[in-house]
Amino acid sequence: MPRISRPILLLLLAGTAFLALFPLWGETFYIRFVTRIMVYALFAMSLDLLVGYVGLVSLGHAAFFGVAIYTVAGLVNKAGITSAFAILPAALALSAACALVIGWISIRTSGVYFIMITLALAQMLYYFFNDQKYWGGTDGMNIDRRPDLMLGDMVLFNFNDRVQFYYLALACLVVAFLLLYRLLRSPFGHALVGIRANEGRMRALGYDVQRLKLIAFVIAGTVAGLAGFLEAARGTFASPAHLGWHESGHALVLVILGGIGTLFGPVIGTFVLLLMEDYFATLTDRWLLIMGVFVIAVVMFLPNGLAGLLKRLERRDG
Amino acid sequence: MSLSYVLIQTLNGVQYGFLLFLVASGLTLVFGIMGVINLAHGAFYMVGAYLAWWFAAWTGSFVLALLIALPITVLLGLVIERCGIRYLYERDHLHQVLFTYGLILILNELQRLLFGNDVHGIQTPPMLAGALPIGEVQTYPIYRVFISVACIAVAGALYLVIQRTRLGMVIRAGSTHREMVSALGFDIGRLFMVVFGLGVALAAFAGMIAAPVSTVYPGMGEHILIISFVVVVIGGIGSIKGAFVGAMLVGIADTYGRVLLPAGAGVVVYAVMALVLLWRPQGLFGRAT
Amino acid sequence: MAEPVLETAGLSRLFGGLAAVQDVALSVVPGEVHAVVGPNGAGKTTLINLLSGDLRPSSGTVRYQGEDITGWPAYRVARAGIGRSYQKTNIFREFTAFENCWLASKAKLGRLPLFRPARAFRETIERAERALVLCALEQRRDTRAGAMSYGEQRQLELAMMLATEPRLLLLDEPLAGMGPEESQRVIELLRKLAVDHTMVMIEHDMDAVFAIAQRITVMVNGTVLASGTPEAIRANRQVQQAYLGEDH
After folding, report:
1. Is A289's CB within 8 Å of B95's CB?
2. Which residue among A188, A201, A205 sits closest to C112, beta carbon to beta carbon?
3. pLDDT tens digits for range C84-110
4. In this complex, do A124 and B270 lie within 8 Å of one another by their Cβ atoms?
5. CATH code for A6-317?
6. What does the pLDDT look like over B78-111, one tens digit per residue?
7. pTM
8. What fold is seen in the domain B3-279?
9. Do chains C and B touch (3 or more CB pairs under 8 A)?
């Protein structure tokens, strides 16, 4: 059951305040970069709901992220629809629908089976987009224009304005965090934590474990879809790699680096890892080699992630 | 579609199935006995293929390259088991996934660093270079027949080892009752090393003998890894028999998918997997939970 | 006699061709304490698992309050009002005693609300607290379950079951592994519960069985050897030979 101690709460508030004020002095490049980080943090946070709270290690979470991106691409490029009023609900609905189907098949299994099946089903979607010229094939496709949000002639929100978009990403991240946090404090959330701790006992107590897992899976997939919508509007590019398994594996790294089962941990993890990746990429072309070593080091020496480190420091002080 | 064409495609499917069986049986063995999910399994396939290519170019002999590259790859696998994987036996699957994911990143980058991004072909050994006539006009490369035969030989050897030897008995016991292993007087750590080495050897050997047909290219390990997952999921985790049936099913489905449904070829095997799972969530030969 | 609350007919379960439970007919009337006894391997725990839905029967039926519940998944059986405890302590070790019971009491909510805080459901908290008090664990309310003594963990196991407010209790060796003093405490608790619950109880401690059971079923090799009042069972020659042995 999620508890956020006072020092960590203060840290989170300070971090949020920093992010809220950052565009006042941040350079354009960094405003864009932090926007991207926040989008991926949202994606990682949605995965933490599954991995950290329900104990479902999904290796196919990028599928829902990518499906939302292709939904935007399809509506803008193929159907000529650009209104976010239509695009956002469609992207969320399709991600949720995919999560429902993939979840329904995979949740009947557990453990390693679950890992392999989520990976394989996500890979099926990967090949669907990868093999078809219509969707741009392996090269992916540029999204012709960003969504718009108009009421009559009035522009409610300008997706092309990078500062506005920055705040949209920040707002989505904060609101998603608060909603998931609230979710985890509800009887439903408590039940998820119980499932992770002792699934069999939960059944004997009268919990419909399969159903609860499926609901959690769909919620996580939908939040990943929101991240996908933002990524599409930000990067205006849809690529099969967005739903490939490297994207899913990368998201797992973000989650464990930040600290599983904390929701805020993956956000910290995303900031740290993406900044690191960016830094190493300027040093050498072979930066993935360094990242590989780093990932292994995290698993070996920091299995509770940065959030675990914070908690440990806190305990030593208190 | 002529009869000989169907025959050739079926032979291709079966040959691909045999290859998949080698890789998937290693994966399922390592999981079934050690309880470790090894994402880097495909990376050993790649390492095997690249080393075979490199040594073949260096020595001029594919067979010699095989003999040198296989022990090197297995040694690499054993070192990785010793230094890393062994600390993950009791840990979460999540940690195993991430550790072996990190290994993939490292091995992929090392491959790029050492051998570059190009696709390389390996010359078929001269004595296997010919082709057999099939029907009036078509032919079938002898080397593909050789792959199937080699896979059958390895599978047969694997069967004999598992069914007939003391080591095999321990392996069989280890997959169901771990405490039996120590009761039989075996050191569990040593057993795990042997099994992991065996898994690496199977993957690497498959990569090596496939190389003249498939060429060697960056990312080859991941493709085979994910297809092997599909095979294992279809067959049931930990079941060698399941791995065989799954591999044949996937090999043939994939080959015919490419011929009949070129636009959706990549999707076919996954659709097969989904269908099997709807029918039997634990796979064809998996133990019901 | 009253309509049985729980009734099985021809209940069997095979494990790879071997019958762990074979053709068992069990009838439990409301309010009774029904003990199932028998040597190890008689199929008692398998029987409980069949009743609770943890296992599916190979054949036969289970009826609860007149309704056929054969093959229902465990969670549905639990929601219908059948609670169970496990022989091997099965609790949430990382949670406190209260959290364990609270998790149990919230199962009764059925369709779980997603966004209302759990604290808002006062009745679930009250149910959990009541269960703790009933099992004399209120002093240990905020202790982590994993840190409690074995006897306390066994009591918690019962408290969790009670927090779901079941009408029928399936108890798998509630006294297993307990010292005499702890046993006495749990026997007292069971007596208290017997007032307004129906119970099916597996137990090895024959003194406890004769002390609280109104009806005893003796199982041997997966089948029912005899079933009757404690007096009848005590007097039954077959039972004496097969099970009670020289002790009685």
Report:
1. no
2. A188
3. 998 888 899 999 999 999 999 999 888
4. yes
5. 1.10.3470
6. 999 999 888 888 888 999 999 999 999 999 999 9
7. 0.92
8. ABC transporter involved in vitamin B12 uptake, BtuC (1.10.3470)
9. no
